[in-house]
Specification:
By secondary structure, the chain is mainly alpha-helical. The protein has a single domain (3-121), classed as MetI-like fold (Orthogonal Bundle). The protein has seven helices and no strands.
Amino acid sequence: MSGERLVEILSLLPEATFETVYMTFASTAFACVLGFPLGIYLYVASPAGLAPGRVAYGVLSQIVNLFRSIPFIILMVLLVPLTRIVVGTSIGPTAAISRFPSRPRPSWRGLPRPHLARWISG
């Protein structure tokens, strides 16, 4: 590798690092903002919850389980048209942020449940 090529690659490193950190934090925040309330609602609406809502719980739980069973790469491809509508493009860091939280959201939904069960039961 020539010295010029190395300098060119190293000059791209700060921007690429910023984009990676930007995508990571923004998609994690997005997943938390959507996942935690969904998890709390699913716990509260569950049959053993504080305000059981059989229909709402059943529908939302099935949707979450469906998304959990789709492999990440397939889900990313399926979300490309939605990303184009929402963000206006399907490539780049901002477009990635709209797709990345779709995978961890089912996992984030599950985090509040054991804590709420332990807190509510005393």
